[in-house]
Amino acid sequence: MRINPRFIDKIVKIGLNAQAFFTVGILVTIVAIIFFKGSPYLNMEFIFSSPEDMGRHGGIFSTIVGTVFLVLLSIFVATPLGVGTAIFLTEYTKESWFTKTIRFGVESLAGIPSILYGLFGFIFFVIKLRMGWSLMAGVLTITIMILPTIIRTSEEAIKAVPRNLRIVSYSLSATKWETVTKVVLPSAGPGILTGIMLSVGRAVGETAAVIFTMGSSLRLPTSLMDSGRTMAVHFYILAREGISMEKAYATALVLVLSILCINIIAYYIMNRVTSKYS
Amino acid sequence: MIKKAFTKEHFVKWVLIAFALSSLLFLFLIFIFILAEGLPLFHKIGLKNIIFGFKWAPTKGSFGIFPMIVSSFLVTFGALVIGAPLGLSCAIYLSEYSGKKLKLFLKPALELLAGIPSVVYGFLGVIYIVPLVRNYFGGPGFSILATSVILGVMILPTVISISFDSLMSVPKTYREGSFAMGATKWQTIYKVIIPAARSGILASFILGMGRAIGETMAVIMVAGNALKIPTSVLDPLRTLTSNIALELAYATGDHRLGLFSTGVVLLVIIMALNYIANFAIKRRVLK
Amino acid sequence: MDIKIRIEELRLSFGKAEILKGINIDVYKNRITGFMGPAGSGKSTLISIVNRMIDFEENAEITGKVSIDGEDILGGKIDDVQLRRRVGTVFAVPIPLPRSIYDNIAYGPRLKNRNERRELRPLIVESLKKAYLWDEVKDRLGSSALKLSGGQQQRLCLARTLALEPEIILLDEPCSGLDPISTAKIEEALNELKKDYTIILVSNNTKQIARITDYAAFFYMGTLIEYSPTEKLFTNPSERKTEDYIQGKFG
Hints:
Chain A contains eleven helices and two strands. By secondary structure, chain A is an all-alpha fold.
């Protein structure tokens, strides 16, 4: 018996609809759980006071500081390095074994799981280079982790700038570097910034690479050699050790909200500058 | 052509070369180090004994990681079973059935889903999924089943976005031609569009696998910690990633080297998966 | 009549392909000289040597001499960046920079460190006037250059070049794709400009060459076929090929 294809069509449409709905439902559920279970405990005091009694009491201030320091410093190191490399690859050389090797490195590193960064960072920075669990070890590890993303997105963004604009700049007596800084980078800016925001988001949520390099001290980090805790690490410890469900949910909420904000900012940057050019 | 005096331009070029070299150094440092630390043990104990060894007791000289390799693959396949069909369906829905407005709304939603840290997934898994499994199916709850569910959800963004891109890049003319011949929407999707996008879809699955097999934090929280090869989906397990994460802090000497060897195996598997995925994509481009 | 640009035995090849096969030509000061010929004749390549934009192409092998005011620009003593301040170029497709009209024109002068508002603004106004664009944009110098029409954008490109206060202006098919009114405006501007600048106009449009140039050079497949005052070339060409081209028998 042949089933009417139109009938199958309708069933499929309903089925796909349902699955899409289900998937969105998963996202909504996750965010809702965190929101409803976490927001009762989220207040100014939570944000601005540091954890006490291993996190049973107090807030997450020192972990927020830890996260901010780690991410900002990593971006500070990785961005010039990554964007500079991208500029070099696109504007200053032709394809050669050197450029191919860098690209190979970038592609290969893209899929390395964070635990391997943690493994590497722990043995190399913390132990062999004797940095101990420290902000410095964490920053160096995270920098290596986000470097491929920044190189890749910067290169794409720079390549997307039309060749014509460079020609015009040169014909108006600009040098290569002037052309890069006054024409190419401004045009590639949004793309590059998006790559940076992506990396920020990743670093904020990163746990495995951070806990083994920056450590998990509850103190507020005041120098590069201090250990510290990021929000993600703090959350993990709260959850694993079952210290405080309420604080855990609240921390998770702060984490998710931060990432949401980062995504919104990235989105805004992309849109705002694209409209400027239309 | 012309020799210019040493100028700012030269200075800039050399600074950029220095940056590129530094990047190269950083990029390869991690490879070289992991390989340098991980390979000696293979030499000392023997490749077969490690990869096919059944017992992991590093303080007693036993470095068998076979159960963990099996466990890693089991949860990865489990993640695919859950995430691939669901992800592909969503991708199809997004590309073929939804209008511009919906696409605009769902893209950031996907990115948000992808941005949620793995520890949060693990946490929710422990609180909700593990008890669910324990109460409805039996066993300790920490199981292949629970882990696969969590990992399946975590790889959804990867599968959906790459499959979506792949489906969207099928030329409009394919669809139009099919409709012109009287096919229904589903027939068109099934017989024309999916085959055309198949290498991209396949690539999305493989990359999803790569993500699942490398996942650590969520897995630690829901997989339990059993060193045996699991025999049912309700059994607890330990993956390659968990192995490293759980013992890194206190491992010394050969034990530590054993963790590096675990790392090397993991690295090889993931690079193989990445390579396959890229190969699958390249075939599409060549077509 | 002074010679501004002297080209002697100029040859250019890309690998095995010979693009320019020994060009000898003198371009006169304060005149509009037209380079015409069918596609592929080498005229655009020729001017890319005059403004040294050819430097950005790898694999180009060049022999011969190009002198501006007696100085060889290929020899190795002249800096290409400095040269492009003396030789301005307008391309076939208008390419405004993604910024305001004011900033577009100011781009060149600012590179020369003409940063002061006092100096910069009159220069910009002057350039826009010379390009016959001032009246249309004087109220909106701060608005994006991308919002201008095609003809206005091309005049913007001309003004941008003028702001650098060059001696020579090269235009490569500047009116291709522009409507007749915009074309007329640009031609009018060029007619005024030749009093102060040396102008080379590359075009495949023989009628345009006939309209506004003082001297005309006909190129074919990398060779200069004929070069003489425009009126003579069009009314009494010496070469058969020139005549055929003008009459449209090929192109």
